[in-house]
Hints:
CATH class: Mainly Alpha
Helix content: over 70%
Order of helices and strands: HHHHHHHHHHHHHHHH
Largest sheet: none
Radius of gyration: 20 Å
Strand content: under 5%
Structural class: mainly alpha
Number of strands: 0
CATH topology: Growth Hormone, Chain: A
Mean pLDDT: 87
Distance between the termini: 39 Å
Number of domains: 1
CATH superfamily: MFS general substrate transporter like domains
Amino acid sequence: xxxxxxxxxxxxxxxxxxxxxxxxxxxxxxxxxxxxxxxxxxxxxxxxxxxxxxxxxxxxxxxxxxxxxxxxxxxxxxxxxxxxxxxxxxxxxxxxxxxxxxxxxxxxxxxxxxxxxxxxxxxxxxxxxxxxxxxxxxxxxxxxxxxxxxxxxxxxxxxxxxxxxxxxxxxxxxxxxxxxxxxxxxxxxxxxxxxxxxxxxxxxxxxxxxxxxxxxxxxxxxxxxxxxxxxxxxxxxxxxxxxxxxxxxxxxxxxxxxxxxxxxxxxxxxxxxxxxxxxxxxxxxxxxxxxxxxxxxxxxxxxxxxxxxxxxxxxxxxxxxxxxxxxxxxxxxxxxxxxxxxxxxxxxxxxxxxxxxxxxxxxxxxxxxxxxxxxxxxxxxxxxxxxxx
Length: 389
């Protein structure tokens, strides 16, 4: 639970910009790609920082990277209040993303995966739900505070709060994990190179990383632009924030179900099913314009996409040695973060060009279909090898 609350507080910081997207854009002539880029840089920085901090956590302990991350998130929020564009970009990309979330997100995935052998998928699903619980809990609260006090004051207050919560949790709970890391065994008993799904291990890993980018492009679009999209349709921002909470609340609840499913059918198969559900939900979002319909689609979207990222991590632990987790998991999260960054920024860019969100959602659906193709190939090879085993 300490890991879950840490993720809840850390990921709450990024939702302020999402809720205040139109307010921040109004300060730069209504250009939505500027605050959208700030959110994108936070995701990208989180991915890059995760590789560095994952290795550092192996040396100094997860506790210390989490403490550093919490302090940097608070500092990044303070810098962001100096205004768009550059202070906002630097605060989100370097401090909130690279050092802040980078020191918390990937190290926590690695840390928790080493505490569990059985039901590892359920454990990963639980702690990764912190980001969605943050999205379910914080946007309605942020909307009210932003309306009353402004987005700058909201960032400052939240920075103090997340530091006050995360640091005591890290000091109290994040001791060294019990799993012993054994040296990798690069060859099998006959001296041949070890292969994964019949391919070189890094080839399979590369396909998984590309697939992660493609699935996270559409994943980011509703999360980053739903409030603004609702406002464009004449729906109140408070209702849009509530809709975002419904999306991420259903994601939090369903992620536990996806964790149990992944323990039974495996990580790759879970990714394939979740990605197909996400593609169907994105298509429904493209075709829906009324409030009741959008609430339904938001709930369906949350139910579908929520199990994808922890299922990728589970698939890595199923296919590759535990000794490689400290670099493979952060690298995969880097590519997923790149997809989230690209999706959020691309939606803002296409909106600025066309004046509405339909082209962005269509581009997201296209990326999702390519993801299904790649993951389907891996699932097919896995099933084929099991049938001949």
